[in-house]
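User: Here's a chain of 230 residues. Predict its fold as tokens.
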Amino acid sequence: MGALAKTVTVILLVMAFACLVVFVERLWAYLRTHLRSRRFAAASSPVLEENRFNELPQLCSAHEGSLLAELVAAGLAVFTRAFRSSGNVPPVELTRRELERRLEVQASRLRRGLPVLASTGSVAPFIGLFGTVIGIITAFEGIAREGGGGLGAVSKGIAEALAVTAVGLAVAIPAVLAFNLLQTLSERIELQLSTAASELTDVLENASAEALEAGLAEVDFEPGGDRGGA
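Assistant: Prediction complete.
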């Protein structure tokens, strides 16, 4: 390969390495988030069903790193403040708004790195094609300088030029497949979190005033920000 073809190939290989890093990191993050959220859901479901809200702060702290635990902690903290302050906006409505904001933040964290895969899948074939076009132009310029030459004179140069396109496709195709897989997993987790947020508001809305007063009496904590780490 010529200097330009080698440069284009190196760029494509760097993009491939970046995609591999993103894919492995996101796949591990999704698996870890899923497992942690499942454990928290199993532990918190009976607590919520029995309106034992005073036990939730400890559960959320014990399951640090779970996006679901972070979501429940944020929602319950807002609900507790609103319930005690008796403001104009109903506590459940304030909780629903806070959960929606948290879901948007978590969705953004879940999709972190996916633009690298999308960009590589879109751009890599064109980068390879660019190297091929330049290589073919260089091959024909060589023929023009020498004043002639048949297929044998240009076949090697064209083959080297087409190899760059092959590298571009070899990088782009796995990147697109990886992006589609991670996008599907991300959307699945977002749907699960959204469903859990809706169930939490239903529990708080359906709980009686006496149960809320007793369950929230000992609740005193603030959500832990971005502790989910997705």
